[in-house]
Amino acid sequence: MLRKISLRKMPLGKIARRLGAIAALVLLGGLLSATLVRLAPGFDADERELDPSLNAESVRALRQSRAGEHNILSFYAGYLRGAIRGDLGTSHALGQPVRDLLRERWPVTARVAGIGLLLAWLLASTLAFTACLWRRPAYEILGTTVSGAFLCIPAAVLALLSVILNAPGYLAIALIVFPKIYRYSRNLLAKAYALPHITAARARGLGEVRILARHVLPVAGPQMIALAGITVSIALGASIPVEALCGLPGIGQLAWQAALSRDLPLLVNLTVLVTLVTLLANSGADVMNYMLRPREA
Amino acid sequence: MSDRMNMTGRRAFLRLLLCFALLFLTLTSGSAFSQSGGELRFCLRSEPKTFDPLLVDDDSSLSIRYLTGGVLVRVNRHTQELEPELAESWKVSNDGKQITFKLRRGITFSDGSPFSSEDVAFTMQRLMDPALHSSTGDAFRSGSGAVTTKIIAPDQISITFPAPIAGLDRLFDQVAIMSAHSPNPKKEAAVLGPFMVAEYKAGSSVLLRRNPNYWKKDSQGRRLPYLDSIRLDVQSNRDVEMLRFKRGELDLINVIDSDYFDRLAASSPQLAHDAGASLDSDFMWFNQVPSAPIPEYKRAWFRSTSFRRAISQAINRDDLSRVVFNGHAQPAVGPVSPANKFWFNNKLKAEPYRPNAALQRLQADGFHLQNGTLFDKAGNAVEFSIVTNAGSKPRERMAVMVQEDLGKLGIKVNVVTLDFPSLIERISQKFNYEAAMLGFRNVDLDPNGQMNIWLSSAENHAWNPQQKSPETAWEAEIDRLMRAQASTADPKKRKESFDRVQEIVADQAPFIYLVNQNALSAVSSAVEGANPGILSPQTFWNAERMTLNASTRASR
Amino acid sequence: MNAARKLACVVVLALCAASLAANWLAPAGYARQFREAPSAPPSRQHLLGTDEVGRDRFARVLYGTRISLLLAPAAALLSTVLAALVGGLAGYLGGIWLRLARGFTDLFLSLPWLFLLIAVRALLPLNVSPLVSVLITFLILGLLGWAASARVLSTSADALRNSDFLLQARASGLHGTRLFLVHVLPNLKPVLYAQFWISIPVFILAEANLGILGLGVAEPLPSWGSLLRELEGLISFREEPWRLVPLLLLIVVMTSFQLLLSNEEVTV
Q1: Contact by Cβ (8 Å): C190, A195
Q2: Hey, is B384 helix, strand or coil?
Q3: pLDDT tens digit string along B75-113?
Q4: Distance CA A248, CA A226 (A)
Q5: Tens of pLDDT, residues A212-264
Q6: Distance between CA atoms of A34 and A38, rounded to whole angstroms?
C-alpha cells in the first residue's frame, strides 16, 4: 500500500515573503546586467563607424546615439518607470518595442525548451533507473558512455546535426541537457542505494521496484526536485545556440542578437525574464521540498 | 419522367464538365505564360536594420532596398555602365554641381500614388536633411550649403549642389525614390521597385511580394517581375545556409565561402559560380597614432616605412590565396582591385614574397636576428599583436599564416580575435591596438567613396585618423591628390591623380594589402536567368527578370 | 567491473604517456604549417591528416591534451570547491544564510556573464602569453561554473542538517568546521562528483567558445576545445571521418576517468 503523502502547508506569510524576495532579486538582476553590459568595452561602438561613406558629423551622431544609456542608474530608473506603464523599451537592433518581441517569441522558447526538458528528464531517468533496477555493470558503463558522449559534443554541433537530420529543435535541447541530469541523478540514486537499510530490505526479499519507490526515492527525492529546478535554467541556456542555428524565432535567438549588438534595452528585459523564470523554478522546487518534508515531531 | 431526368442529368453533366474545363484551364494557364510565378528563397546574413531606403547602411538592408527601391539611374552590375532607369535621360553640368533628369511618365508607386518630379524633390530634400545621417546622404555632402531642387516640369527636375561632386550621376544608383504624396504615414511602404515588403518577422524572415504597379516590361510587353515573391530568411550561420541550399530549401547563396564553393563544385559544378576577382580586399595595418597607448619603441617600428615594407615582403600572398581560399583569390595590389577596370593602376604589381630581401631591409634599419628572434636597434624583441574580428574563418586562417610567415623572420606575432564592438572601440576610439587585420567590402567603383580613408583629417584614415595637419609628406601628397580628383569631372585627370595615390600607397604601405577574393556564389538549378557577377548584389541584380523553372514552381 | 577498470586504466595511462611524449611521437609539432597539403587525409606523415592551414592534427591532439586535460580538471575542481563552500555551507548553516545563498546563486545563474568576459579580455594586455591567457580563461570558467550545483548542494546539506545522524554527531560533541568537514561534506559527494565530471567537458568546450572573445588558447597553441570546434563544418563528415577522432578520444578518456574513479558510493 502506498504511504499517504501528507503535504505540509506553507503559511501565507512565508509565501508573501518569498514572492517579495523574488521581485527584489529580479529587479536587482536587471540592474546588475545593465551594469555589466554598460561596463563591457565596445558599448558605444557601432560597426557603421567603419563605413567610409559616412562623414564626420554622422559618425559623431552615431557615437552620441547611446548617450542616453551612459548613466546606468538613470537608464534603469527610466526603464522601470516605463515598465510600470507597460512599455518595456525599444530594441536598438531590431527597431521594435521589446514587449511585442517578447510576446511573439516566448511561446516558441517555452515550447521548445519545455518539451526538450521533459524529453531530457525522460531519457536521463530511463538510463538511471535501468542502471538501478538491473544492477549490471554493463548498464552502468552504457549510461556513462552515452551521457558522456553527448556531453562532449559541442551544443552547436548538436544543433547543426538536428538541422541536417531535420529533427525538431527540442531534440537538440534534450540531447544537450540530459547528460547533466543523468550524471546528477545517477549519483544521487547510487548514494541512496548505498544506505544500509537497502541491503536489509533486499535481504527481507523486497522487490527492486518497491525498494526504489519506498526507500530510495524519498531519500534522493528532494535533491532531484532541486535538480529539476536548475535544469530549467540549463535548458534556457541551451536554447540560445539551438534557436540561433535551427532558425527558431524564440527568446534564445533574440538573446544572441542582443548580445552581439550590445542592445541594452533588450538585454535588460531578457535578463529580467530569465531571472524571473530561474527564481520561479528554483523557488518552486524549494516550496515543493518544504511541502513534502515530513512534519517535525 | 425518366426522359426529363435524363435531360436535367445531361445538362448538369455538361455544366460540371464546363466547370472542370474552366478549372483545368485556370490551373494550367500558368504554363501559357511559362515564365511567371514562384517564390525565390535565399538568406540574409544579418538582421536588416532599417526599411527606410535613405538610412540604409548594412548589407541586408541594402539587399532589400535593391529589390524594392526604384532609382533614377542604375549601374548595370554586369557591364559596369550607367543605364537609365526611372530617368529616361540625364545631364551633368560642366562644373559638376548640377544634374538634370528627364523622368519617365505614367509610372505609379506600389500604393497607386503617381510618380513625378515632386517625388524626386521630396526624396532629395529628405536625403539632404542635416539631421539624417546615412551613407547615401553623406555621399552628396561635398560642401556646406543647401542643396536646391528645381522642378522644371512634372517629368523634369534639376538638382544643384553647393560644391562639385565627382561621379555625381553614378551616386543616384543608391537613391531610392520615395513617394511625396503617399497616404501611408510610413513613407517607405510605397515603392517603385519590382518587389515590396509584405511581411517582416523580426529576427526571422522578410517576405517581398511582386509590386503590381512596377513599370518595367520585358521585350514582349509583359509586366515584370516574373517572380511572385521573394523570401529572405535571416541566417548568419554559413553551415546551415549551405545545408539548406543543398536540400533545395534555398535557391541561391549570394556570397559563398571558398570551402563550401569547392565542396559544391565537386558534387554539382554547374551550381557553383566563380565570377573572378571581386572588388573586396583583405588587408592589415599598423597603429601609427602618436597618442596611442603602445610602447614608444613599437610606435617607432610602425611609423617606419621600411619596417612596413619589410613585413609586406615577408608575407606569402600566394600561399594565402592557395591555402585559405583554395585558389579563389589573388594577391592584392592596392586599394583598388583589378576587377575595377577603369580605376585600377595596372602598372602596379602585388608585393612579391621575398623574405630574404625583407630581412635585409630590416637589418639595414638596425634590426638583427639572434637565436631565431629578431631584435631592434635598442635590443627589444620584435613582438606585436594582430587584432581581427572573430567569426570570419578565412581571416583567422590568414592571421595564423601571417603569424607563421613573420615567425620565420624571428618576429613573434600574437593573433587576437575579438568581438566586433570591442574591435571597433580599439581601432577607432581608444587606439589600444598594435596591428589590425580587416577586410573592405567595396560596393562602389568610384574611389571618391573612399575619400574618408585617404584624407589624413578623416575618420576612416585607419592608421592615424583625424590628423589636424598631415604628419608626413606622403600623407600630405595623398590629401592633395584626393582633393584634386574630387574637384574635376574629367575622368582622365581623375584617373591620373588616383593612379598616383595608388603608387604612393604601394611605396609607403600604410595598408598592407593581402588578397582580393573572388566573387563566389551558388545558384540552384531551379533558377533561370541568373547571371552572377562581381558587383553587389552578385546573384540577384537582375531579380526582376529571374524566374523559376516550371517543375519548381509547381512544387512550391 | 574489474576488467573495465583495467581497460580504463590502460587508456588513461596510454594517453598521458602519449601526450608527454608528443615531441617524439609527432615531431612535426603543432604549429608547423605544411602548406602544400592543407586539409589532407591521414597518411604516414600525418596520422590524422592536417587541418585547414596544413598543421598536423595528430600533433595538435597530443599537445592539446596537455593543456586541456590538465587545466580543465583543475578548473572543474575549483568550481566544485566553490559550490561546496557556497551551497554546502549555506545548507549546513540554514536559516538566513541559506536564503541569502540561494538568492545569490539564482541571481548568479541568470546574469549575462558574456560581458564580464569581454571586460576581462579588455583588461588583459594584447600580448599576453598563450599560457597566461589559457590559465586566466580556465580560472574564470572555474569561478563562474559553480552556481548550478550549489543550488542542489544547498538542498542536500539542508536535508542533512535536520537528519538524525547529524544530531547524533552534534550530541557526541562535534561542532562547527569539524562537523562540516567530517560529516556533512562526505555526504555531499554524489553531487560534488557529478559536478566535477560534468564540468570537465563543459569547460573544455567553453574554452573554445571563449575564443570568439579573444580569451581561451591563443594561436597557434591547440586545445581540445578548438579541435572539437572543427566539427562545426559537419557537412564534410562523410568524406572526412577522421575529424571525429578528437571527439571519440575525449569520450573515451572521460568514460575511462569516471570508471577509474568511481566507487561504491558514487556508482553502483
Answers
A1: no
A2: strand
A3: 998 888 899 999 999 999 888 889 999 999 999 999 888
A4: 29
A5: 788 888 888 888 999 999 999 999 999 998 998 888 888 988 888 888 888 89
A6: 6
CA separation for the pair C168, B119 (Å, rounded): 90
Quick check: B138 and A247 CB within 8 A? no
Highest mean pLDDT among B212-221, B241-250, B497-506, B534-543 belongs to B497-506
C-alpha triplet B411, B423, A29: angle, nearest 5°: 130
Nearest-angstrom CA–CA distance, B548 and B527:
5
Place of cell 572521460: C254
- In this complex, the residue of A137, A148, A186 whose CB is nearest that of residue C254 is A148
Q: Is the CA virtual torsion B208, B210, B215, B218 positive or negative?
A: positive
Biggest CA–CA distance in chain B, Å, is 120
> For residues C189 and C266, what is the distance between their CA atoms, to the nearest angstrom?
8
How many beta-carbon contacts under 8 Å exist across B and C? 81
Beta-carbon neighbour count of residue B341 at 10 Å? 11
Distance CA B476, CA B497 (A): 14
Burial (CB count within 10 angstroms: exposed 0-12, middle 13-18, buried 19+), residue C60? buried
At C164 the pLDDT is 77
The residue with cell 611605396 is B507
C107 with A32: Cβ contact below 8 A: yes
CA dihedral angle for residue C85, residue C87, residue C93, residue C98, rounded to 10 degrees? 140
Which CA distances in Å does B164 have to A58, B93, B138, B144, B487? 21, 10, 14, 11, 6
- Nearest of B176, B52, B182 to residue B111 by alpha carbon: B182
What is the spatial distance between Cα A178 and Cα A151, in angstroms, rounded to a whole number?
A: 9
Helices in B304-391 by DSSP H: which ranges?
305-314, 317-319, 325, 355-364
B323 touches chain C (CB under 8 A): yes
Q: Do B401 and C33 touch (CB under 8 A)?
A: yes
B304-355 confidence digits (pLDDT tens): 999 999 999 999 999 999 999 999 999 999 999 999 888 999 999 999 999 9
Give residue B20's pLDDT.
57
B419 and chain A in contact, CB less than 8 A: yes
Span C237-264, average pLDDT: 80
Percent of chain A with pLDDT over 90: 34
**CA atoms of B397 and A131, how far apart (whole Å):** 46
Transcribe A255-278 into DSSP letters: HHHHHHHT-HHHHHHHHHHHHHHH
CA torsion angle A271 A274 A279 A284 (round to 10): 170
Q: What is the pLDDT of residue B7?
A: 52
Q: How confident is the model at residue B30 (pLDDT cuts 50, 70, 90)?
A: very low
Using CB atoms, which chains have 3+ pairs under 8 A with B? A, C
Give the integer Cα–Cα distance in Å for B273 and A240.
34
Q: Identify the CA nearest to C157 among candidates C132, C185, C135.
A: C185
Q: Answer yes or no: is pLDDT of C215 > 80.
A: yes
User: Is B376 in a helix, a strand, or coil?
Assistant: coil
Interatomic CA distance for residues C102 and A279, integer angstroms: 9
Q: For C94-138, what is each residue's pLDDT tens digit?
A: 888 888 999 999 999 889 888 888 888 888 888 888 888 889 989
* Neighbour tally for B321: CB within 10 Å: 24
CB C117 within 8 A of CB C210: yes
